[in-house]
Request: fold
Amino acid sequence: MCGRYVSATPPDQIAAYFATGAPEALLEPSYNVAPTDDVYAVLADGGLRHLDAFHWGLVPYWAKDAKIGSRMINARAETVATNNAFTSAFQKRRCLVPADGFYEWAKRPGQKTKQPYFAHPPDGGLYAFAGLWEVWKGPNRDQPPLRSCTIITTDANDAMTSVHDRMPVILPESAWDAWLDRDNDDVALLGRLLVPAPPQIITLRPVGTAVGNVRNNGAQLLDEVEVEP
DNA sequence: CCAGACGTTGTT
DNA sequence: GTCTGG
DNA sequence: CCAGACGTTGTT
DNA sequence: GTCTGG
Reply:
């Protein structure tokens, strides 16, 4: 799945990478992005792409309580088109979530602690996770609407299976326009984009367990560690 | 018809 | 909002 | 995803 | 064990 990732590239570089306008809100770089954090997402409006901040954890517009968001951090590619919680967002509110890489935890036989791995592009660049977004207008009319998002997951590819059986959907640049186009109602075509990425775009690096605590942050979280066999 | 859910993951 | 279960 | 809490009452 | 918070 995808429950923790890295977004440390400065906003102007993210904007340049995805050919968006300047971001509306500036977020601090994070080496430990956790659910409920504010994150960047790329949306398209007409031919123009925008880089906006969203709360990670989808709150459907019909939700009575925003708390549901903390349990909606991922959506399964296999069911995103049919599940009530996601259908309308899948049809009309798709986005890309930029990331420098993501973490997955591998269970180690005979040991209680899990080994975290940082999965990242071999030669730099950013991942574009497939995501959905929503706007929730809570009971308080005075409060600004809550903008939230979720990351779509799929089966692990050959690069990831040794660590975990799920991974985020990573879209190639060739798919970005089709995915972001609000007028694209070809759900069959959209569904075919939600497949495991080719393994060669992933390099795995074992890192320290400090990343497990959301209070920890900083580039040192990416330092490689020795893995006990 | 109304009431109630609407999610993913991991683990056993 | 929309679907499922009763 | 992992870490950490997991309770009620009354008082300020 | 299970839920909430980050």
In short: Chain A is about 10% helix and 30% strand. The helical segments of chain A are 11-18, 87-92, 173-180, 187-192. Residues 60-62, 84, 87-88 of chain A lie near DNA strand C (CB under 10 Å from a C1').
